[in-house]
Amino acid sequence: RARTRLRYVSYQVGRTGAITPVANLDPVLISGTVVRRASLHNADFIAEKDLHEGDYVYVEKGGEIIPKIVGVDTDSRAIDGQRIVFTEVCPDCGSALVREQGEAAYYCPNAEGCPQQQKGRLEHYCGRKAADINIGPETIELLYSRDMIRTVADFYHLTEGQLLSLPGFKQRAATKLLDSIEASKARPYSAILFGLGIRFVGETVAKKLAGAHLSIDALAAATAEELIRTDEIGERIAASVLHFFSLPQNRQMIEQLRAVGIKLEGEATVAPTGDRLAGKTVVISGTFEHHSRDEYKAIVEANGGRMAGSVSSKTSFVLAGTDMGPSKREKAEKLGVQLMSEEEFLRLIEA
Ligand SMILES: [Zn+2]
Prior knowledge:
Helix content: 25-40%
Number of helices: 14
Strand order of the largest sheet: 3-2-1-4-5
Order of helices and strands: EEEHEEEEHHHHHHHHHHEHEEHEH
Radius of gyration: 24 Å
Shape: globular
Bound molecules: zinc ion
């Protein structure tokens, strides 16, 4: 935690259009690194702290990468400091900002035409947990600035000639990028769904939705009531999903992804039946990539196993996905119960 002077406030546009205010500071050393910029949370925070330009502020560097402003030293405020008024327009495209009821953030409503939002969506789609395309923001910026990409579907029409025309792009880099784009066609449906960047649909929610609605067509056809029936999906997420599929440009993009062979449906649930799990008691915890939790329950039972809700000395093994509950993990480790990964489990069943 350190005290420094706030020089001015700038604004960033995220891929969903959310506007983040950023404090630009006199450089200050915090736990070994020089901090020049810090998060200002949202408009309410700025109003509540009555921030002025030139104010001395307290900066904190927690576990997050971006330091945060946590307080203002109003006693040492200069008399001539200008009060900070939150911007009313998008810093990138100039659209008037909107604020939805019950939300802290202001949004740029120009989802289709705002360059920062478009580039943000392209970057998000390429993320490791999404389509996993090995490309940096600088290359995306280059491709975007030359009108070679606008939506994520455009990645699949890039040619070697186009890439080689970029400054500093050699044959090896072009081949590597095209291979990586091609490899993204093998990514599971849930990862692609996450990559589409639907607001409020993070990695875990994408897996839940993909598990409950086994293709993107089924998801697009789902009503609000059907969406809310999905485990952990509330009204806010349901409304966002409905809105996404209601936009013609998104439907068009999905058709373009389908045409180039992107996976838009989950793997059919093949529940091999047998007695491989006879006499075994299984606990399932976390989220999974290949099948939903309900499907795994069905697979366990179809193979003679018994499901249990909590870990005990009678548990044979835990089928452990990502984000497994820490208390379950601790208990399993204490009792010496085996944690089996999704892949190990599928190998055991399908062997
Ligand atoms: Zn904008």
